[in-house]
Structure formats: C-alpha cells, structure tokens
Design brief:
The structure is a homodimer of 121-residue chains.
Chain A lengths: L5 E2 H5 L9 E6 L2 E11 L10 E7 L1 E6 L2 E6 L2 E5 L5 E16 L21
Amino acid sequence: MTCVPVNFEEKFSRFKELWSPKVVAQMNDYQFKLVRVQGEFVWHDHPDTDETFIVMDGELEIKFRDGSVTLKSGEMFVVPRGIEHCPVAEKECRIMVIEPAGVVNTGDTGGDLTADNDVWI
Amino acid sequence: MTCVPVNFEEKFSRFKELWSPKVVAQMNDYQFKLVRVQGEFVWHDHPDTDETFIVMDGELEIKFRDGSVTLKSGEMFVVPRGIEHCPVAEKECRIMVIEPAGVVNTGDTGGDLTADNDVWI
C-alpha cells in the first residue's frame, strides 16, 4: 500500500495556470481534479456525465441558461449531464472537479480554454 | 434547474450520530456522504469498488493490514477496492466519503456499526 495522503494546499502550490485541471487522485474510473479559475469560462455541457464542483477557496458562480448557482468555500454542486453551464469567478478561486476520467473541460465546445487531459500532479 | 449549493457546515449541523453516513449529493451513480466519526470502526473491505475519504475537520487514521495513512483537514485518500481497512479517529472527526450508491459502510463485515444506506439530508 502506498500511503501518502493528497494534501490540497500542497497540490495547489505546484501550479499557477488558470482553467488547467490537475488530477490528484482516481477512484475507479473517476478523477479528482484541482483547478484554479478566474474570469469567465466557455458555455459547454457534458452530454454523457454529471460533473461535480467543490469550492476549496473563493467564490464560483456557475451560470445556466435558466439560472445560476453561487458556491463559496465549503460548498459543492453537481451539474447534471447535458445541462449547459458556464463557470465564472470574479477573483481567483480554487476548486475541485470530480468527473469520469477522459472528460474534456470544455465539453464539445472546444476552443482556446480546452486543457490537456489527464495531467497528474 | 434546482440551484441550491450543498453547504457542508450546514449539512453537518443537521446530525450528531457517529458512523452514520448522510448522503448530500449524487453524481451519476456515485454518492457524496458526510460522516461524523470517533473511535475505531471495524475492519472491512469493499471488493467491488474503491472508496474515497476526504477529511473536512479533525484527523482520521485509516489502518491497513500492512500500514496506515493519517489524514488531516484538507486531505484525501482513495482506498483501493479489496483492501482491508479500519478507520480510526481519536477525537471526533468530520469526513466526506465518496463511493458508488449502494455501498454498505461495513462492507461484508456487518455488525452493529452497519448504517442505514441511502439516507439523504
């Protein structure tokens, strides 16, 4: 047994890039990804899977076509599959995203903010 | 869209029982369960799934037959499927467990600490 805990602070200290998910753990075929976010992302959806957001530090708004949810540190939300959403953070915010391995951050929308997948730290 | 975030503090304020997982969210067929723990649990494993532990507050030791890992607030660990483990917390500790819906907290071991499953708060 490799018995090293994942420490979120320590992992976040290893990178500064925004909108660039870093995988820190995997459970079955699901991955835990730490992400620094600031500004507005792109509208997209994930047709085949729900997607979990947990805010570790800061504040994140997730806009939907018919509403929005605002998450503060210590809060989470599960975006259902197929629901278009657009994450926004006025100030830099640190989040954890949990979703199946292989899910692309921009869904089918693509564009400049599409990050490399499966990057572990 | 129902747009209410899950606030961990608020959810924990709703129950006091130990070793009694409360479901707060579901992503596909996986559930997020908040648990208050103190003392020593029972040795068990989950032959069909990994199991994720995140410590929200306090300190949790997870003992294995050949070692252990100690998690503090802001740390996580994924126990691989089939690995016998026994969670222990000297003082009360608040954790989140993430695993497929239907997983029983004591695995195949059973006993008095077996909790009702799929209890939402």
